[in-house]
Here is the input.
Amino acid sequence: MTVHSVSSDRFEGMDEVKGAWADFVCLNATPTGSGVPALNASVRRVEALTIGAFTGSAVRLERTRSMAQNCSNDVILCIDDRTRLRATWDGVREREFRPGDLHIWQADRSMSCETSSDFSALMLTLSRDHLARHRIDIDSLLRKGGHVADKPEVRLFSNYVRSFCGEAELLSQPSIEQCAAHILDLVHMVFGVSVDTINDGKGRGVRAARLKAIQTDIKSHLTDPELGVAWISKRHCISERYLRALFADERTSFTDFVLEQRLIRAHDRLCDPAWRHETIAFLAFESGFGDLTWFNRAFRKRFGMTPSDTRNAFSSGLLLRR
Here is the structure.
């Protein structure tokens, strides 16, 4: 995986950030807000995908006709979760996109786009050949306006890509390649291609990507009192039965996964010097446990020692952090 990250807040300066925009999506970026301008760009090239995560203050993006002549015919998929985008193609056709909509841009067409406020955009480039091989009629979609309205499939796609961008540098190369395959499968799903059937038995597909997004969501809400099958199912727009089936595919259950993540969190806190002044009861509750007796029993069963013994073993150097 090739990673290129630049920020106007760091030493690179605004010019290098603008260069990242130009290299990735062939667009000139010009801040338009009244305050101090800020632009950030992080571009990852993985397998057949190039993924860009861009944030900053209000900005105008432009691709002139001369720039478009030197660009590839790749397709750019763009989602901005924060602000409305107003875009014009070839100087004539104008369209406004709402936060969460998926926009489809052509890299070889002149365009301009302006955000109304601070933005947080994901952009993926895909070759037309790849889309054609999977029977995605991108030209038909472009003729109909070039966008897919906010819907559960688009949100799943957006959440998974953002999760990947946040964790990618910690993943092994095989895991990165598998995530790239999941992202492609989600692209297919957004455009209505049935990939569950195509990839059945290959360890890929929408089910794996959906489970990854759900697991990430659970880890972010371990202390939320509402965390449960019904709550997570509603958040991800799936049935409770389907949610349980996703975990069953991994030979576990929703309850066991949540318990494991809470125990791991508590174990990490007990072995972290930054938490050494907190009581074990506090760390148990901070990890999502509401009953201290149940926590002690589950912890000992999982790690083979009590929480107190774990903390003491780490303090004396007999136990290393996970």
